[in-house]
């Protein structure tokens, strides 16, 4: 069994709460947890919010913490040392209620499980964990996708960038493919094309490590939601994620709500391995387009007619391609009654 790499320090470092959202993907979550409990940062806790999974995610998580359930390793052999051998069990697990106020008289448990009671979407589910993190006194909240594996120094690198400049409010990581660990998925954040609402992940497709290294990272419009270290100041002044975005565009909305003096940061040495792609289908596509309309209305309203026109042009394309999930999603959202529901 691998021992946790947490080591005491003389100066109290900022406390970090790591928020993972789980929905029917317990195997991903357990693998992520194995890597998280190898972090070399000395002051953190992990909050897993389960969005009313219909599988046995909760019992699997309890079993993992108790040493009765193993976590599957990543497919890439070079990533196995990030999760194997397993960390020492049991891992102290505390189960909290959704609206419970944690005690500040004692340190938070290393692992906290909150059952949200419903599928609240990405923003809603993460917000449950963020509220708990703020109540327990966290200085920073690290929102991390559960389908990731993290390098041991990834959190330390994020905190270092946050503390290097008081104007930085949200920091992103280097995201690499978990299946092809030398392939970049994103360098911290992305760019938005306002006229269309289309997004582009900075550095996607490049080889890692970068040769030569970028002397000056490309400016970003938002931090990729798979890994965002957010300061307590931002959470208390700007607010939590907008739960009107069930899926997609939450991180863009957050970035566009920041005051002008608050900047986005990127920690190149914070390396996260992420499953690219994801679920597709009619329901997911509807969430995507609904969030696109909502975001454009709120932040780029003058471009909304063009965004809607481009969506309308995709209807015959989807029909000719027999892409029925795309076709149904577009038709369901291009009705006037749906467009006005923002």
Automatic annotation (TrEMBL):
It comes from Thiobacillus denitrificans (strain ATCC 25259 / T1). Residues 65-84 are annotated as: Disordered. This is Rhamnosyl transferase related protein. Pfam families: Glycos_transf_2 (PF00535). GO terms for molecular function: glycosyltransferase activity. Keywords: Glycosyltransferase, Transferase. The keyword rRNA processing does not apply. Belongs to the glycosyltransferase 2 family. Residues 18-65, 110-174 form the Glycosyltransferase 2-like domain.
